[in-house]
Amino acid sequence: MAQRLFHLACYDVAKPRRLKAALKLTRAYATGGQKSVHEIFLTAEERAALLADMALLLDPEEDRFLLLRLDPRSHVYTLGKAMQPADPDYFYVG
């Protein structure tokens, strides 16, 4: 089984139609997050697919997308009612 690494995905999209498409695509992979920042566990293949699909959706002149891999050795701090991010036992992308 491929190793899934923890990422944060965030975007700033100018047009509402592209924003909705970016949200839908990102949420297909997300395990948590808020508004335009999402917690995602990805294999290398899923990461490549997400980046390729997002490149097709966004306008590079107006929009921005950042996919940041977090160091697995780092401690995650949560505030309030937040829950620690966790890679589920099974995951459906779609």
From TrEMBL:
Any Pfam family matching the protein: CRISPR_Cas2
GO BP terms, alphabetized: defense response to virus; maintenance of CRISPR repeat elements
Binding positions for Mg(2+) per the UniProt entry: D12
InterPro entries: CRISPR_associated_Cas2, Virulence_VapD/CRISPR_Cas2
Function as written in the Swiss-Prot or TrEMBL entry: CRISPR (clustered regularly interspaced short palindromic repeat), is an adaptive immune system that provides protection against mobile genetic elements (viruses, transposable elements and conjugative plasmids). CRISPR clusters contain sequences complementary to antecedent mobile elements and target invading nucleic acids. CRISPR clusters are transcribed and processed into CRISPR RNA (crRNA). Functions as a ssRNA-specific endoribonuclease. Involved in the integration of spacer DNA into the CRISPR cassette.
Cofactor: Mg(2+)
Subunit structure, as described in the record: Homodimer, forms a heterotetramer with a Cas1 homodimer.
Name of this chain's protein: CRISPR-associated endoribonuclease Cas2
A GO molecular-function annotation: RNA endonuclease activity
Gene name in the database record: cas2
